[in-house]
């Protein structure tokens, strides 16, 4: 070590480069998309969590450029499937390209449009999941949590990103709809009797809940 690093930088420096995810990040940047993908260590955590529940079916709400999708797909069982919900067609397209690049193009299914409509449809189709990653519009987080619990197999994990909303959640002056609904989501993560949960004050805040058997 030469210069002093942040704890996050130090933790990251312990791991080798991830060529696939670096390509994915470059492709996202090339499209001029805002860089709001999850951090590499966070991606590793997602892979590890998906693996630890031996997930066959994962559901992602908010595909963006496909970075988190790759991390989720890496954790799935060999014949596992990822369903990814995305509002913007161009994002779904880019995400699919990322998954193809990582070798998971055939294991992912994109559903473009309002996530709440897609969730309703998945429920009507009788689909169930072992893992959920919520990383979309904050105003709907409580609704996404309801759907995740409804679509969950016993023991499923629900992970929610950006629970601190880059400082908004803890700032009492912030009273907009998104942050209000996100606080409601966070409280429900902590209090819902159907869940065993933890709220990690890492990255931009990370909720992890397990749906009780
Ligand atoms: Mg996010």
What amount of the residues lies in strands? 15-25%
Which ions, cofactors or small ligands are bound in this entry? magnesium ion
Mean pLDDT: 94
Order of helices and strands: HHHEHEHEHEHEHEE
The main sheet comes to: 7 strands, mixed
Secondary structure category: alpha/beta
Task: Write down how many β-strands occur, each being a DSSP E stretch of 2 or more residues.
Answer: 7
Distance between the termini: 46 Å
Inertia-based shape: globular
Compute the number of helices. Answer: 8
Low-confidence stretches: none
Spatial order of the strands in the main sheet?
Answer: 3-2-1-4-5-7-6
Q: Keyphrases for this structure?
A:
single chain, 8 helices, binds magnesium ion, 213 residues
Layout of SSEs?
Layout (H helix, E strand, L loop, with lengths): L6 H7 L5 H12 L9 H13 L4 E5 L5 H9 L5 E6 L2 H13 L6 E5 L2 H10 L4 E6 L6 H11 E10 L15 H15 L3 E6 L5 E6 L2
Parallel strand pairs: 1-2, 1-4, 2-3, 4-5
Antiparallel strand pairs: 5-7, 6-7
Bound molecules: magnesium ion.
